[in-house]
Design brief:
The chain has 21 helices and four strands. Strands 2-1-3-4 form a four-stranded mixed β-sheet, sandwiched between helices. Helix 14 packs antiparallel against helix 15. The protein is globular.
């Protein structure tokens, strides 16, 4: 009997201990006003953790980082820690107020709710503590860096220190970057520090600074690297066009597209073409999609079998005129020449059927079946299609 009681007590102890540990966290959801009051009372800055319930990185941080003793100890001693669902209640307002564009978002605030520091993303315990320690250093905080920059905005180092910290919070840094860069002549732009400020702070294709980069890529590559210069050029096209693609906003996209095309680089033109197809697909504007594909698939996707199949599949599902479908059939046959595949042969069969060429449709379907058999895969899709042809 004593043994049973002892075992039961042990199990209860383990159960309650594990529950207490699983609930242990430096964060609570007391609300923003209560956090501000506690911040004033305890004379500690606030660490606001904004999360989304669907965010796997947020959940991982909760389970694997904010349960670590070292993290709990450091945050509890130095901050008033409050967490909040960024998609509910005041969390929505705070997400917008503090420019949280990615989850999880971490905002460090003083007792007046002024932002001192911030960053987003998933971190390991030691890296998170390192960032939190930085947030406590007055000389690394935004109010100090902003004051230093405004007092001496011609100073490149002060500009760079300010915009890199500001950018981590998700804020737009173009205004301070431009304020400094306007003090530089065009030849002066070609330096390591100025390149870093341009790379981090300039996002307008038609800006003086970026246009100078385009015309003097070799010089900027000399103070940075060819890879970094090319990456910046590609990123600036992404920043220009991606928001219109994601909406999708065809009118806005068509208006801004010529700016991206004005760069006249193969990689950026290829990216613009990809966005052309994406916005056509998202907006279900199949005439725009069809026109873009016929004009440029061979140039940009000619050596990419999966991309050729992807475009051809959209034609097979959404395009009806035989002349355009013949282009899709050409892309599909080129795809299987580069990389034979059962689904590629079957797509060619379906396109041939849609073009009303039953002989070709059967031949391609048989090739699809034969290819699957050679690999020991199921031939059901090809068999079903062959039955349709009878």
């Amino acid at each position: 009997m004593r043994k049973i009681i002892a075992i039961s007590f042990t199990l209860l102890f383990v159960f309650f201990s594990s529950n207490l540990f699983s609930q242990e966290s430096p964060f609570n959801e007391i609300g923003f006003d209560a956090a501000l009051q506690k911040s004033k009372t305890e004379n500690k800055p606030i660490l606001l953790f904004l999360y989304a319930t669907w965010c796997s990185h947020c959940n991982k941080m909760k389970k694997e980082v904010f349960t670590e003793a070292s993290v709990i100890d450091f945050l509890s001693k130095n901050f008033v820690c409050v967490s909040m669902d960024a998609e509910k209640g005041e969390g929505v307002f705070l997400k917008d107020k503090y420019n949280i564009r990615a989850f999880p978002g971490f905002v460090f605030l003083n007792v007046k709710a002024e932002q001192l520091y911030g960053f987003s993303g998933e971190y390991k315990p030691e890296n998170f503590i390192s960032e939190a320690k930085t947030a406590l250093i007055p000389e690394r905080q935004l109010p100090f860096l902003e004051k230093e920059f405004n007092a001496d905005f011609k100073n490149a180092d002060k500009c760079y220190a300010y915009i890199t910290t500001l950018k981590k919070t998700g804020a737009d840094v173009s205004e301070p970057a431009k304020k400094y860069l306007q003090t530089q002549t065009e030849p002066q732009l070609v330096s390591m520090i100025n390149w870093r400020i341009i790379a981090n702070g300039i996002s307008e294709i038609d800006s003086r600074e970026f246009q100078y980069v385009l015309k003097h890529q070799k010089e900027f590559a000399g103070v940075s690297s060819p890879v970094r210069v090319e990456k910046k050029i590609i990123n600036i096209v992404q920043e220009l066009l991606r928001p219109y693609v994601e909406k999708p906003d065809t009118i806005g996209y068509v208006k801004m597209r010529p700016l991206a095309k004005s760069i006249q680089m193969f990689k950026t033109d290829s990216l613009v073409f990809t966005y052309d197809l994406m916005i056509g697909e998202y907006a279900k504007n199949w005439n725009f999609y069809k026109k873009s594909a016929i004009e440029s698939v061979d140039k940009y996707y000619g050596n990419h079998p999966e991309k050729l199949k992807e475009v051809a599949l959209n034609f097979q599902k959404n395009v009806t005129d035989p002349a355009s479908l013949k282009f899709a059939l050409q892309w599909t046959t080129k795809s299987v020449e580069i990389k034979p595949s059962a689904d590629g042969y079957l797509l060619a069969a379906k396109l041939s059927q849609k073009i009303t060429d039953p002989k070709k449709a059967r031949d391609y379907a048989e090739q699809s079946k034969k290819f699957s058999e050679s690999l020991g895969f199921s031939t059901k899709d090809a068999d079903d299609f062959l039955k349709e042809l009878k």
